[in-house]
Structures are given as structure tokens and as C-alpha cells.
From TrEMBL:
Entries under Pfam families matching the protein: RVT_1 (PF00078)
Annotated segments matching region Disordered: 188-208, 252-288, 652-675
Coiled-coil region list: none
Gene3D superfamilies registered for this protein in UniProt: 3.30.70.270, HIV Type 1 Reverse Transcriptase, subunit A, domain 1 (3.10.10.10)
Name of the protein in question: Uncharacterized protein
Entry-linked InterPro entries: DNA/RNA_pol_sf, Peptidase_aspartic_dom_sf, Retrovirus_Pol_polyprotein, Rev_trsase/Diguanyl_cyclase, RT_dom
CDD domains: RT_LTR
Length: 675
């Protein structure tokens, strides 16, 4: 009697959820649980059941495979699974697998045991002699906990199991302490009565400060409290409301002077002043065990009067977006109490001996404690220590943190005494027009989705009449360092083809999503300019070097053998935005210069202003190792045409429809045949 088979999903080899080899291994593990649950012992029935469940597409693949006979201890199911596993799992490159292991770092929201599990899975393909030792070393180097790292370095004989036990205990203690301290903070900061809050504000004022009562105009506060005010219970002759005199009536004041802004009830106190700058040469990380006291001096001024004049940046701390000022004179990171209370979850504070002084004062600001957290800008994230000060004095990012997050940059000033002309500049910078440049201290790291299955593209035959020219071009690119010969398979065991811009290559490379300027933004930047120059970067993309670990995906087939790119090329889906961002960073802080694609536009309101910008751009290109295409450069033009728009002294806008580039078609002459 036939029995109904239980439902079981098929295996889709083309799904996008990850590498097919990993997914197939999990699928087989679930299938083995099924045959145990259904109590099927016959290996032939087990094989038939697998091929029934696995799906038609995998069945077609299985029929093309060569399946060996089972060994003594193997079954037909074992050899079937082995053949399919070898098909779906590409050959592993131990060097590349070890590279992935070394670059695995604990994220800011990743628990220690989750990080350990990820390292354990990565180590399975690395062929380590002692995997536990390598995992322990990776946790010590790239784990988030500085406290765990110090304890591990104190005792070099510590085992992996002991390290994980200490890390779990530390995370549990931090979580419990954070809950307790959060409760204490809420009780301390939010449950106090408004009467005590006002009392504290009044006590914080200097003894000589006199405040006018907004109800009667006399001295505030009144000794007898609110009811002792002479205006209490009196009716205003201006608005008819109770508890204030006509002389201080707001409605009467607004009618007489409607544009006068409303005054503060209380003068701004020291707690409401903002941290502006810090003065100290030491940048040492202090621990609780240190007996040294770091003294920092800060300048306190009002920053909120005109926030547009201060370098404020949006950064993320503990997953919370905050606006903080980057200070080039600061040595430590400061977070005021108000910003600290915005963090969720709020990190626990550790005691510190650091003292923070307002600039040119001897009274330190009250420091509540310190904590270490991940701070991230739009492009970079770092682990930094923050010191929390009481009050709402404002928050600061130190000089080191600001530069690490790429918020502040050092720019060397250029003097323009006896500025040369355009002709003299091109002669002075002749080296910019020779050869193919390479951007210094910069390598493009492609973000490759390892879950996309590699695909071998067929060799594209070169037409018979151009093989010599094709080989000459390949030899020239190899001599310039654009491409290199590739021997053997890539780390995934199979060759991609980037030379033909294969669809799978564009799918495997993930974009970085850099911002590209729009035409409206370019028009706004060029508004008011009268003199223009356009500089063309020589083989622009090829001036950016590819990181060695990112080159394998650009492998392509030629009649001279396998080759791959050493430089960025057009076949990469993220190449345009990577190139645009790299050149924009290279031209940072040069007024009168913007880059669009592989062109650099230099402009100015006057010839002198334009020449200053051109000299600065030439100097920067020389410093960064970039070169130009002399034949495509244009200098000192009254107008330039770009992207279908004309930028000139007479204004910026779309190209005229009467442009000679697209001549108006003429009606053909019709000749009549004579009868």
C-alpha cells in the first residue's frame, strides 16, 4: 500500500540568498533529518527520495554528472550527495579564505558569541593548523571590548574557552549595569519637581546678578514667593488679564514694537554655554587604573547664535544620529549630558580622572564619566572614547577623530605672488601631460557579493583583420600597468569575464552609492563665472589602482592568454561613482574647481581668479600623481559646452536649438524627368 510522502521544499540553485554550495549543504542536512523521521533505511529509496524532492532543474544537472561507484562504507545516497556537492561548491582558495577570515571584525551591535560563530564558520575553509588559536587571536585584535583585550594581553596563556567565558560575563554585566544606571538617570533627571529645578537655576547665578520680574517689573525672586509679587491678583489695564502690570504687558509691548524679539527671562548661565575649543598636547587614552590626571582646557562661548558659522556634522553614536561640532584644536571627544541622554541604548559610564577646564578659567566642568563606542560618519566608522560633561554645554569631536572620520582635512595654502599666465602654467607643469598617471596612496576596494555564483564567459574571437592591432593594444596596456597576465584559476576557481561586460560581473560588484552632482547644482556653482577651462584626465578610470584582492573578478580571455585589470575599468558597475568620488576628494578645498565625470572644470569671475584656481588644480594634480590629456584640454574660454548645456559669461542654460552641431535638415531637390 502506497503511503503519502511528506511535503519538503525543492532546491533552487539560482536563488540569490547566498552561495549555492552553502545552501546545498544545509539542504542535505535537513533532508537527512527527513529520512530519519520517516524511518527509511534503504539507501536506494533514500536516493530516489532525494532526487524526487530536489527538483527538476537539479535532476537535469545530476544526469550530466559522472557518479562513481560506492566504496565499501559508502551508499548510493552518499555518492549522489558527493557528486552534487562538488558541482555546487567551487574549489576553495585557502589564501583567499584566510584573507576573508583576517578581515572579519566584530560589528558594534554584534554579540561576542555571534562573532565567534562567524569566525568558526570562516575558519573551516582556511586549513589552519590550530583554528582555536587563530580565532582567539582574531577576537583579541578585532573584538570591540577593550577591557577583554587588555585582560587577554595580561595573560598570554589564556584559552579560547576562558576568553569566551570572560567576554560573555562582561557583556552580561554591562547589560545589567546599563539597565540599573538607566533607571537611576531617569530618576535623577526627570522626576525632580519644577520647583526644585527653578531653585537650582536661581542658585547657579552669580550673587551680583539682578533679574527683573516679568509680572511687576521689580526685583526677582520675591521673598514671599509668587503671592508676594505686587502684581499678583491685579488686572492689566492693557489686555485685561490678571497677575501682571501694564508696564510689562507683552501684548502692549508687541503693539508698540512688533519687530523687537522676545527677551530671555533668565540670563544665559555657564551651563548653557558651548564648548568651542580645547588646548592640550597629550592624546593619551586613560584607564581607570591610571593615577595620572589629564587636564584639558576648553574655550566656552555661545555657539547657537549663528550655527551656520560652525563646522557641525551629523554622526552616528550607538545608532543615534547627533549633530556635533568638529574642533581642530580639541584633543578629546566631549558629549554633553543632553546628547548623552539621547543615546539609545545608553552606554554605561566608567569613572575617569580627566578634568576639563573652560578656557582661561580655573573651575573645571563636572565630568560624569566616560564610555567607548563606535562613531560613524557617512563614509567611515571608528571606535572612540567620549567624556560626558554635565549640563548642555555642547558636544565636540577631537581633531584626531574628525580627521579619521574624514570630516576635517589639512590643506596646504598656495600663495599667488607673481601668478604665471595660462601659457606659463602649462609649460611649468609639462609633466602633467606625459604618460598615464596613478592616484597616490589610493586603492579601489571592490565590494563583491560572494553569494553570486561565478560564471565562465566564452572566449570572444577577434576579427581576422585586426588581430595585430588588438595584440599591440594589449601589450601597451600591460606596459602601462593597466592589465597583467593571469595564470591559473582565480580564488573562486573559475574565470569571470569583465572584458565583455558580463552581466554576472555587474551583479557581483555592489555599488557604493556616492552622490553625483546634478545639472542644477553645477549651474549654481558656475553662476557668475566669466572665464572657464576644461581639463580632461588621461584615461581617467585607468588612473585608479585596483586593490590586489579585487582584481580577480576582472579576469578576461584574450588570444595572448588570461589577463586581468590592475586599474579601474569601465566594465565595473560601481566604477563611475568610485572615480567621481576619488577625484572630488583630490580637489577638496580648491575654490573655482569642480569635477564632472573625467573632466575638471576650472572657473572664475576674472582672469586672475581663474588663473589662481588653475594653478591650484595643477599643483594638486601633481601632488596626487594624476595626468591630463593635452589634446582635449581647453583654457580661458568665455563659454563651455558640457552635457548639452552652455556655461558662459552671458548665463548658463541648455544649448540653443540653433546649434550648428545638429544642422537643420534641408528638403531634397526633386528633379523632374522631362516627358
Amino acid at each position: 500500500m502506497a503511503t503519502a510522502l511528506p511535503t519538503f521544499p525543492s532546491f533552487d540553485p539560482n536563488a540569490d540568498q547566498g552561495a549555492p554550495g552553502v545552501r546545498f549543504k544545509k539542504y542535505i542536512a535537513r533532508f537527512r533529518n527527513l529520512i530519519v523521521a520517516t524511518d527509511i533505511d534503504d539507501p536506494k529509496r533514500q536516493k530516489a527520495l532525494l532526487l524526487h524532492y530536489i527538483g527538476e532543474e537539479v535532476n537535469d544537472i545530476f544526469e550530466t554528472l559522472t557518479v562513481s561507484e560506492p566504496a565499501e562504507e559508502e551508499t548510493v545516497l552518499d555518492v549522489t550527495i558527493k557528486a552534487l556537492s562538488e558541482y555546487f561548491t567551487p574549489k576553495q582558495n585557502p589564501v583567499f579564505e584566510e584573507y576573508k577570515f583576517r578581515n572579519a571584525k566584530q560589528t558594534h551591535d554584534e554579540a561576542l558569541m555571534t562573532y565567534y560563530t562567524r569566525l568558526k564558520q570562516l575558519s573551516l575553509t582556511c586549513e589552519f593548523h590550530d583554528a582555536d588559536r587563530e580565532i582567539k587571536s582574531q577576537i583579541i585584535q578585532h573584538g570591540r571590548s577593550q577591557r577583554l583585550r587588555r585582560k587577554a594581553l595580561i595573560d598570554p596563556t589564556i584559552t579560547l574557552a576562558k576568553l569566551l567565558e570572560m567576554g560573555k560575563a562582561a557583556e552580561l554585566a554591562d547589560s545589567q549595569a546599563a539597565n540599573l544606571e538607566r533607571t537611576e538617570n531617569v530618576s535623577h533627571f526627570t522626576t525632580g519637581s519644577s520647583k526644585n529645578h527653578n531653585k537650582a537655576r536661581l542658585q547657579s547665578r552669580s550673587p551680583g546678578t539682578r533679574v527683573k520680574c516679568r509680572n511687576c517689573g521689580g526685583t526677582y525672586p520675591h521673598e514671599g514667593g509668587k503671592t508676594a509679587c505686587p502684581a499678583y491678583g491685579k488686572e492689566c489695564r492693557s489686555c485685561g488679564k490678571l497677575n501682571h502690570f501694564q508696564s510689562v504687558c507683552l501684548q502692549d509691548r508687541q503693539r508698540s514694537n512688533p519687530t523687537k524679539p522676545r527677551q530671555r527671562r533668565y540670563p544665559q548661565t555657564a551651563e548653557r554655554q558651548d564648548v568651542r575649543a580645547m588646548d592640550n598636547t597629550a592624546e593619551t587614552d586613560y584607564s581607570d587604573d591610571s593615577d595620572e590626571v589629564g587636564v584639558f582646557r576648553i574655550n566656552v562661548n555661545n555657539m547657537t547664535s549663528d550655527r551656520n558659522k560652525h563646522p557641525l556634522f551629523d554622526v552616528t553614536i550607538e545608532g543615534t544620529l547627533l549633530t556635533i561640532m568638529a574642533d581642530s584644536g580639541s584633543s578629546i571627544n566631549i558629549l554633553d549630558e543632553q546628547d548623552y541622554n539621547k543615546l539609545s541604548p545608553r552606554p554605561s559610564l566608567e569613572q575617569t580622572r580627566i578634568k576639563v577646564y573652560p578656557y582661561q578659567t580655573e573651575t573645571p566642568l563636572p565630568v560624569l564619566g566616560q564610555f567607548t563606542s563606535t562613531v560613524a560618519s557617512e563614509t567611515v566608522n571608528r571606535t572612540e572614547t567620549f567624556y560626558v560633561v554635565k549640563g548642555t554645554s555642547g558636544s565636540l569631536l577631537s581633531w584626531r577623530t574628525s580627521t579619521d572620520l574624514q570630516l576635517l582635512k589639512v590643506v596646504k595654502p598656495i600663495t599667488y605672488q607673481n601668478l604665471p599666465t595660462v601659457e606659463q602654467l602649462t609649460t611649468q607643469y609639462q609633466d602633467l601631460f606625459q604618460g598615464l598617471g596613478k592616484l597616490k596612496d589610493y586603492q579601489v576596494q571592490l565590494h563583491i557579493d560572494e553569494g553570486v555564483p561565478p560564471v565562465a564567459q566564452p572566449h570572444r574571437r577577434v576579427p581576422f583583420h585586426v588581430p595585430k592591432q588588438h595584440e599591440e593594444q594589449l601589450s601597451q596596456d600591460e606596459k602601462l600597468g593597466v592589465i597583467e597576465r593571469r595564470g591559473g584559476p582565480n580564488p573562486l576557481g573559475i574565470a569571470y569575464c569583465c572584458g565583455t561586460k558580463a552581466q554576472v560581473t555587474r551583479k557581483a560588484v555592489q555599488r557604493e552609492r556616492h552622490i553625483t552632482p546634478t545639472i542644477k547644482e553645477i549651474i549654481a556653482d558656475l553662476n557668475g563665472a566669466n572665464v572657464f577651462s576644461k581639463l580632461d584626465l588621461n584615461q581617467g578610470y585607468n588612473q585608479l589602482e585596483l586593490a590586489p584582492e579585487s582584481r580577480y573578478i576582472t579576469t578576461f580571455s584574450t588570444q595572448l592568454g588570461l589577463m586581468r585589470y590592475k586599474r579601474l575599468n569601465f566594465g565595473i558597475s560601481s566604477a563611475a561613482e568610485i572615480f567621481l568620488n576619488a577625484i572630488r576628494e583630490s580637489l577638496d578645498f580648491i575654490p573655482g574647481a569642480i569635477n564632472i565625470s573625467d573632466d575638471i572644470l576650472v572657473f572664475g569671475k576674472t582672469q586672475k581668479e581663474h588663473d589662481q584656481a588653475l594653478a591650484a588644480v595643477f599643483q594638486r594634480l601633481r601632488e596626487r600623481g594624476l595626468t591630463l590629456n593635452k589634446l582635449k584640454c581647453e583654457y580661458s574660454k568665455n563659454s563651455l559646452e558640457f552635457f548639452g548645456y552652455v556655461f558662459g559669461a552671458d548665463g548658463n542654460g541648455p544649448r540653443s536649438k540653433e546649434s550648428p552641431r545638429y544642422p537643420k535638415p534641408q528638403s531634397p531637390n526633386v528633379s523632374h524627368r522631362s516627358p
